[in-house]
TrEMBL record:
Residues 195-216 are annotated as: Disordered. The keyword Transmembrane does not apply. Signal peptide: none annotated. Residues 17-199 form the Metallo-beta-lactamase domain. InterPro entries: MBL_Glyoxalase_II, Metallo-B-lactamas, RibonucZ/Hydroxyglut_hydro. Residues 201-216 have a biased composition (Polar residues). Gene3D superfamilies: Ribonuclease Z/Hydroxyacylglutathione hydrolase-like. Keywords: Hydrolase, Metal-binding, Zinc. This is MBL fold metallo-hydrolase. CDD domains: metallo-hydrolase-like_MBL-fold.
Length: 216
């Protein structure tokens, strides 16, 4: 039987229309990235998919820790008994969420803190898959993206969108830093690489190099 390699499933959750990703391979091990599920129905949707595919959740990763990307952290951690992993520089961002979650309409948000820290240069592995961790601050101080070189896919969080870029007006954001991250970390990848962003449709490095108005 031929190996199909990495598979990527996305869900769009919560009022911010955030993209949550499940990555899995032939071993049936999987990682959940940025679980944004904000209610029981969305939690069930994620759970049903994992169950149907007979997947084993082995890691819980955040690209960064703004509220729309972390609403389902506790649910995933508790349901599958996995620790949260983030970049250390986003710990402050994560710790701030309970202070404003009610104002954003999520009074039921439950905090969970990381047990492991992601570092650039230290790959994330599960099953037969290795993801490169690239440090891409600017939208958030500890933002990272996950690059799978063999299949040329990047789980990009809120760094680069289809013809747009992440906002930089939130605490810890910096416009020049974000542009630098895109140019040095994403635009140095092959043009064919598909970018799976935290919101909206996927795009490619090549397309954004030629048609992204923020980077021309």
């Amino acid at each position: 039987m031929m190996s199909v390699g990495l598979q990527i499933k996305s869900f769009t959750f919560n009022p911010f229309a955030e993209n949550t990703y499940v990555l899995f391979d032939d071993t049936k091990e999987c990682v959940v990235i940025d679980p944004g599920c904000s209610n029981q129905q969305e939690q069930q949707q994620l759970k049903d998919f994992i169950q149907r595919q007979e997947l084993k959740v082995v890691r819980l990763l955040n690209t960064h820790c703004h509220i729309d990307h972390v609403l389902g952290n506790k649910f995933v951690a508790d349901t599958y008994n996995v620790p949260l992993e983030i970049h250390e520089k986003d710990l402050e961002v994560l710790r701030a969420v309970p202070t404003y979650s009610a104002a954003y309409g999520f009074p039921q948000y439950q905090e969970i803190l990381p047990e492991k820290y992601l570092k650039e240069g230290e790959n994330v592995s599960f099953g037969e898959t290795e993801l490169q961790v690239l440090f891409t601050p600017g939208h958030a101080p500890g933002h990272v993206v996950f690059y799978h070189e063999p299949s040329q896919n990047v789980i990009g969080g809120d760094v680069l969108f289809h013809r747009s870029i992440g906002r930089t007006d939130l605490p810890g954001g910096d416009h020049e830093t974000l542009l630098q991250s895109i140019r040095t970390k994403l635009f140095t990848l092959p043009d064919e690489v598909t970018v799976h962003p935290g919101h909206g449709p996927s795009t490619t490095v090549g397309e954004e190099k030629t048609s992204n108005p923020f980077l021309s």
